[in-house]
From TrEMBL:
SMART domains: FBOX. The gene is Fbxo15. This is FBX15 protein. One of its GO terms (cellular component) is SCF ubiquitin ligase complex. Residues 1-42 form the F-box domain. It comes from the Eukaryota.
Length: 437
């Protein structure tokens, strides 16, 4: 009921984030809160001081305030958009400074954690039930590794699993990040869709990867783990494994409904020859289970000959069973740690696998982070004097497969990784290089 002039006077005392929030009340408030006069003052206060320009005509020379000229020559809302775009550009500039230094082992930016902090990035999951109602879960715990970040959500107020239809994973950034204070929870934010999962018939449609006395773990591709209470068959926690490669782009450059699509690779002319095969690849391989890292190793000079191409895949052998000198022991006993508001646990024989495969120029070629599990193999080994059972881990997605073998030595209570083989999709290789294998 207040007159527009009074509302405008009140709005003129608000900061940018508050103005954007007020504009969401109704159309009338939106129009008033988009006033060029208010936003021009905010713009100049943040980016540049008000200055004068000179206008020339045949009779006289006069100085005109930039603010006056800008107000009369621009459409309503122009300076609000300019302020927002320039703020976003300033954040991108800060983030890019952190992304320039590259780790020589992983081939990825070495200051990903700092870049995420500079952007104000966080992650949420949105659960939609069969009636269309959305449940937003924001409380998350982060765990950073060399090549990935693990995000864990837990709550005492999960909606009933039987009524849920989809789960969406979003990256969230504040629209107007302020480096001097923490992001405002209810302030204006941008959502970027990372992945969408269907929860209908979750137990039947997903992969069961392990259980302990309290929970069962189910894996959904890509990189999502859902923990269900054993007795109630309800959600206990959700864990997402996010690889650093393209993480900032996927978490910031997509929209609330459309996932970010990376640009196609521009192949570099070299001596790549389908008759010769792939060469000089590097693999950074990381195994962890929450706070504990079981193995972190880099393999270099991987190659694939023409004869190693079969059934639509190119084979890259990082570690062979016969190469005893390179077999590496694992640190600790494999298991995946989890927690909720009340309980904690560890599911044995499960872990998170991080794969970072770099091509010959050092570009990330195939990267993922995913929860996986061990299976007892029917094979037996006589590699060591104290031969023990062989365990395997198999992972597959649309771009390739990973096959890992472990040897358990009962006498020393140690596990060794004895084989690691990657199978890269021929289709992916052809798309990357523009060749025809």
């Amino acid at each position: 009921s207040l007159p527009p002039e009074t509302l405008m006077k009140i709005f003129s005392y608000l900061d940018a984030a508050s103005l954007l929030s007020v504009g969401c009340v109704n159309k009338h408030f939106y129009q008033l809160a988009s006033d060029n006069g208010i936003w021009l003052k905010i713009y100049f206060r943040c980016f540049q001081p008000e200055r004068t320009i000179w206008k020339m005509n045949s009779e006289q020379t006069e100085t005109v305030s930039v603010g006056c000229a800008a107000l009369h020559d621009r459409k309503p809302g122009y300076w609000k958009k300019e302020y927002i775009f320039k703020q976003i550009a300033a954040v991108k500039t800060r983030v890019m400074r952190f992304l320039k230094p590259v780790d020589p082992y992983t081939g990825l930016p070495s200051k990903n954690k700092e870049a995420m902090k500079a952007s104000g990035l966080s992650w949420i999951i949105v659960l939609k039930d069969k009636n269309g109602k959305e449940h937003v879960m924001e409380k998350a715990k982060l765990s950073f590794k060399d090549t990935s970040v693990t995000v864990l959500w837990y709550s005492t107020n999960w909606p009933c699993l039987d009524i849920l239809s989809t789960l969406k994973l979003f990256g969230v950034t504040p629209l107007l990040p302020d480096q001097s204070r923490a992001p405002i929870k209810n302030g204006p934010r941008l959502r970027s869709l990372i992945a969408e999962y269907h929860l209908a018939n979750l137990i039947e449609s997903s992969v069961a990867i392990g259980a302990d006395k309290l929970v069962q773990l189910f894996s959904l591709n890509p990189g999502l783990l859902v923990g269900l209470w054993k007795e109630k068959n309800e959600i206990a926690f959700v864990m997402a494994s996010l690889h650093y490669h393209q993480l900032l782009e996927r978490s910031t450059l997509g929209s609330a409904t459309v996932q970010y699509a990376p640009p196609p690779n521009k192949p570099v002319l070299d001596d790549i020859d389908p008759e010769y095969g792939l060469h000089d690849y590097s693999l950074h391989f990381d195994m962890h289970g929450g706070s504990c890292t079981y193995l972190c190793v880099t393999f270099r000079s991987l190659f694939c000959r023409k004869g190693d191409i079969a059934n639509g895949y190119l084979k890259l052998t990082a570690l062979s069973v016969k190469d005893n000198a390179k077999h590496s022991p694992l640190t600790g006993t494999l298991g995946l740690s989890w927690e909720t508001d009340v309980f904690k646990g560890n599911v044995k024989d499960c872990y998170v696998m991080d794969v970072t495969l770099l091509e010959e120029t050092g570009k990330p070629f195939w990267c993922f982070s995913a929860p996986v599990y061990l299976e007892l193999s029917s094979k037996s080994s006589s590699l060591y004097d104290c031969a023990g059972p062989i365990y395997t881990t198999d992972y597959a997605d649309s771009e390739g497969k990973v096959c890992v073998e472990f040897l358990w030595l009962e006498e020393t209570k140690e596990s060794f990784i004895v084989s690691l083989v990657l199978y890269i999709s021929v289709k992916k290789v052809n798309n990357w290089y523009g060749t025809n294998y």
